Amino acid sequence: MKIADNNQQEEYKAFLKNIREEREETSNFAKLLFTIVLALLCAVIVCVIIVENNFFLNSLNSENANDSEGFKFSQKQRKNFEAPFSPRRQNILLLGVDSNGTGSDIWEGTRSDTIMVVNIDPRTRSINAISIPRDSKVYLPDNKGIQKINSAHAIGGINLVKKTLKETFGIKIDKYIIVHDEAVEKIVDVLGGIPIYVEKPMRYHDYAGKLHIDLNKGNTVLNGKQAVGYLRYRKDGLGDIGRTQRQQWFMRSLFEKLHSPQSITKIPEVLNVCNTYIKTDMSFYELSQYAAFARSVDENKIEIATLPGAPNQRGYISYWILDPQKTQEVINRMIYRDKPALDGTKFKAGIMYSPLKEAQAQALKEKLNELGYEVNMLKITHLSHTKFVANKNAVSVDFFNWLQKKIPELDNMQFIYDPTETFSVGSDFTLVLAEG
After folding, report:
1. Do 184 and 34 meet the contact criterion of CB atoms below 8 Å apart?
2. CA distance 46 to 106
3. Cβ-Cβ contacts under 8 Å for 190 (sequence gap 6 or more)
4. Which of 6, 134, 162, 186 maximizes the CB count within 10 A of its CB?
5. Parallel, antiparallel, or unpaired for β 309-314 and 317-322?
6. Res. 96 pLDDT band, cuts 50 70 90
7. Distance between CA atoms of 417 and 244, rounded to whole angstroms?
8. How far is the C-alpha of 185 from the C-alpha of 232, rounded, in Å?
9. CATH 3.40.630.190 placement within the chain
10. How far apart are CA 344 and CA 150, in angstroms?
11. Number of other CB atoms surrounding residue 74 within 10 Å
């Protein structure tokens, strides 16, 4: 087994230590928020899928519900995806907003502390999603000055958010969905909990913020409040990086729960949550069709990335300073679907693995070696969930799908694009093997 040299290991440990110190420093000035990247996506998926199912149920209750041909027609309509738009790619803006306090309007003057742009491609039936850190330092249009991007919604509503994204990143928004930060907790409870693997003991109490986390390591079914704790937990030395990983895994678990036969019986209750805590400019027909599209997408064609940068503090204000070059690279890849020209250079592979996964890591190394890849390995005591991480822009989803055919053990891995190379062992792509 080829083990990364001591200098490489020490460099990686120093890098993680630096992340921890920066995150702990800025956390004193940042409000802990429940609505976070892929948990928001989960709530939206719940919304549109339930809307689609509700459309199907309404069809059954129509005057033709007893007619067998009518039933077959409704069922067929439910399964097909007929885009209410042209075959061109579209950008859907997903916002998670906080609360202004008891008794206030849940939409007016609220900050968008989760900002995600989902790019859908009807032609290839694929989805790319970009998360924009809420503390990103930007210049707001209409002479609103330099602000954190999450203040755009509070200052100028959805129109200012859309204008900011267009003028700052060149991203034109076609449709939007806004989710209040209480939605996910209530939906989890309605669905009877979400099964998840908790990768480590999680203990944290914030009495002022009314956040109490007390989770044991292992497989469990999280209720709404426990899901909040799991998604908000950040005291693991990785800060927002570890939290983002848990969001991604939670999304997969929730998506699987939605496909269970028991979920359909929860439609009326989930609809009540959606009607109260989700706001959109889409029509009922558009929602039902987007839901059909979401269900038709191959999970291996979902790509996720966060705009790269670094934390920076000025007085009592903390910002996320975006890296201009890498940010543009992410946008070109995820929104404009640019495909990098391959120069024939063989990628370098990396494997990060938990101690209990050493045998599996060795087996994967041998298979990668057989395919001609150089492999660097690194054992890490605490790792989040298993995933495939593309560290270089040239490592595409197409390459990942090809590699899955060669190594079937990779089929259930989630694809993450991370140009910051947080999970890199001197490698262009990294297989992360965790216990969960």
Report:
1. yes
2. 20
3. 266, 269, 270, 273
4. 134
5. antiparallel
6. confident
7. 13
8. 12
9. 85-185+240-284+293-334
10. 42
11. 18
Question: Rounded to whole angstroms, how far apart are CA atoms 244 and 298?
Answer: 22
> What gap in Å lies between CA 263 and CA 283, rounded to an integer?
23
3-class DSSP state for residue 425? Answer: coil
Nearest to 116 by CA among 97, 100, 98: 97
Q: How far apart are CA 272 and CA 205, in angstroms?
A: 31
Q: Are 23 and 237 in contact (CB under 8 A)?
A: no
d(CA 262, CA 284): 24
Tell which wins on pLDDT, 122 or 171: 171
- What Cα–Cα distance (Å) separates residue 426 from each residue in 23, 149, 351? 24, 33, 10
How large is the average pLDDT for residues 128-145? 90
Tell me which DSSP letter residue 149 carries.
G
Tell me the pLDDT tens digit for each residue of 117-136: 989 988 888 889 888 888 89
Between these two residues, 294 and 75, which has the higher pLDDT value? 294
Q: How many CB atoms lie within 10 A of CB 65?
A: 13
Q: Coil, strand, or helix at residue 419?
A: coil
Alpha-carbon gap, residue 365 to 358, rounded angstroms = 10
Tens of pLDDT, residues 282-338: 877 777 677 667 767 777 778 888 888 888 877 778 888 999 999 999 999 999 998
Partners of 416 in the β-ladder: 304, 389
Put simply, whether the predicted model's pTM sits higher than 0.85 gets the answer no
Region 360-382 average pLDDT: 93
Binning the chain into helix, strand and coil, the percentages to the nearest 5 are 45, 25, 35
Least confident of 19-33, 167-181, 382-396: 19-33
Outline which parts of the chain fall under CATH 3.30.70.2390: 6-28+340-433
Q: What is the pLDDT of residue 301?
A: 79
Indicate the class that CATH gives domain 6-28+340-433. alpha beta
For residues 66 and 72, give the distance between their C-alpha atoms in angstroms, rounded to a whole number.
11
pLDDT reported for residue 395? 92
Domain 85-185+240-284+293-334 has what CATH class? alpha beta
Q: 207, 174, 41, 179: which is closest to 110 by C-alpha?
A: 179
Question: Mapping DSSP to helix (H, G, I), strand (E, B) and coil, where does residue 301 land?
Answer: helix
Taking only the tens place, the pLDDT of each residue in 2-21 is 444 565 555 455 545 544 44
